[in-house]
Amino acid sequence: MSNLKHHQSALGLHTTSSQLGLSLNNFSGDNRYQTWDVNRELSTYLHQYLLEFIQPKTWQDLAFIAVAIGPGSFTSTRIGVVTARTLAQQLELPLFGISTLAALVWSNRDNYPVDCLIPVQMKASRGQLYVSIYQKSDQGQNLTPVLADTVMNPDDWTQTLRDFNLDVEPLISSPKLGNTVPSILELAYNYWQQEERPHWSEVVPFYGMSVVVNV
Q1: Which residue range(s) make up the domain with 45?
Q2: Of 50, 30, 44, which is closest to residue 182 (Cα–Cα)?
């Protein structure tokens, strides 16, 4: 497995909700994160908070970047992904795009046994839901999507849960998800250790509502 060099850290961004989350982690004990309730002012404050948060580290200390790609707020998700892509391009770093729902599951993983199927849901527009099902795999050290992030109406989701014979209640997303940004980085680091080095151009927002926007 591949590990970071002693001076390196990874940067995580979570912008898909009203709560901005930033995280730095060297995966050797130096780990911190911070959240801000930015609501609709994300574009005004994101770069300022980034510059302040990364100190005393420098951009050259980064090994990779990870960003929440959604589902979530259309505008906020786009801003976060574009910012992360720009940084990764300029710094020539790998960029990992991580599902908002996967990060929520990962942040609650200790509440479930290994190999458990974990359903998760988030409110979408027009009365629909963003949903997915993940499984704790590799002795609980990773997540495997059993049902990839998608959009369903509540009745179809209820039937899907019956079809999977799930005996656990779905995790329900809160309006503020910035505090799951450490999970964004931890999931990305799992891929990093498996020698994955995704190019920034591969990371695009997941809107889930048949919306295609160039970034």
Answers
A1: 9-99+176-202
A2: 30
